[in-house]
């Protein structure tokens, strides 16, 4: 695996993606719970899987798969199922820890979580939707339970990188900045949803005309090779197909190099 400097400071992405709760936030459009103060006096959690790397801090940017339930076990919102499998139709939820774009229970409960970690989070109503509920379907003074996994963690203020991994090393000519390449590719979100499928099309372009990041990742590939290019949030998005604030993977098959 190799890394390529992306050249964009991640903090710009963090600011752009923080937002107040709305119809896309955990808890929006939920089915009713019991509607009573249910007993969580403080925020508490149980870590179900350990994860790896540094724990999340205020200002870090995380991509979260989650499942939210009332205390009666009824699910009110999720982008993964009860087994932890992501819903392929939904992207992981993007959160700047401590940014105020989610309920306080999330802002506080994500602190210390590592990439790959799964945590069960018990959120008292005072750190969820408060005395009045969400004004839609979450009743007043309703405690909530979330099972959440950090799929990816980016340190606040750090410079992101494009990672590359060769699935198959080619045997033909090697691509340079001055080459013209013919290739196919497919783009996927972290949940596995395909957002751009060009596997049936042979695309030809000078390497120096490819988008930044993609261009640097193709340099060094050999004809006949296959490479995964992992792009961080904020990657160049000339077609408008990349979901805002989401990392994506491209799997590229290099057909020929001239």
Walk me through the structure.
It is a single chain. 7% of the residues lie in helices and 33% in strands. A hairpin with a 4-residue loop joins strand 9 (180-189) and strand 10. The protein is mainly beta. It is built from 3 helices and 13 strands. The strands form 2 sheets. Strands 1, 8, 9, 10, 11, 12 and 13 form a 7-stranded antiparallel β-sheet that branches. The chain has helices at residues 10-17, 104-109, 214-218; strands at residues 2-5, 44-49, 61-69, 75-78, 93-96, 118-123, 144-154, 161-168, 180-189, 194-197, 203-206, 226-231, 248-257. It has 2 domains: 9-154, Chitinase A, domain 3 (Roll), CATH 3.10.50; 161-257, Roll (Chitinase A, domain 3), CATH 3.10.50.40. It starts with a strand and ends with a strand.
- Count every beta strand, where a strand is a DSSP E run of 2 or more residues: 13
The number of helical elements comes to 3
What does the average pLDDT come to? 87
Main beta sheet strand tally, sense and closure: 7 strands, antiparallel
- CATH architectural name of the largest domain: Roll
Summarize the amount of helix as a percent range: under 10%
Low-pLDDT residue spans: 7-37
* Shape by Cα distribution: elongated
The SSE string, one letter per element, is EHEEEEHEEEEEEHEE
Number of domains: 2
Radius of gyration, whole Å: 21 Å
| Secondary structure category | mainly beta
Distance between the termini: 25 Å
- Give the CATH class of the largest domain: Alpha Beta
């Amino acid at each position: 695996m190799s890394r390529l400097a992306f050249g964009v400071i991640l903090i710009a992405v963090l600011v752009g993606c923080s937002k107040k709760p709305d119809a896309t936030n955990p808890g929006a459009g939920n089915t009713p719970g019991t509607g009573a103060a249910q007993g969580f006096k403080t925020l508490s959690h149980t870590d179900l899987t350990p994860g790896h790397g540094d724990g999340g801090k205020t200002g870090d940017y995380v991509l979260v798969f989650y499942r939210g339930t009332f205390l009666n076990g009824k699910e009110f919102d999720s982008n993964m199922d009860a087994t932890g499998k992501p819903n392929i139709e939904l992207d992981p939820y993007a959160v700047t820890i401590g940014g105020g774009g989610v309920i306080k229970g999330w802002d506080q409960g994500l602190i210390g979580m590592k990439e790959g970690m799964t945590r069960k989070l018990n959120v008292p109503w005072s750190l969820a939707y408060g005395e009045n509920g969400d004004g839609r379907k979450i009743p007043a003074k309703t405690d909530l339970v979330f099972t959440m996994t950090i799929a990816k963690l980016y340190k606040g203020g750090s410079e992101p990188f494009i990672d590359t991994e060769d699935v198959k090393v080619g045997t033909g000519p090697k691509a340079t900045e001055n080459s013209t390449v013919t290739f196919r590719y497919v783009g996927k979100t972290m949940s596995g949803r395909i957002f751009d499928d060009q596997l049936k099309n042979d695309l030809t372009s000078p390497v120096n005309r490819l988008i930044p990041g993609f261009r640097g990742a193709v340099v060094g590939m050999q004809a006949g090779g296959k490479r995964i290019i992992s792009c961080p949030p904020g990657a160049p998005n000339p077609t408008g197909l990349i979901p805002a604030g989401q990392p994506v993977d491209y799997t590229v098959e290099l057909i020929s190099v001239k």
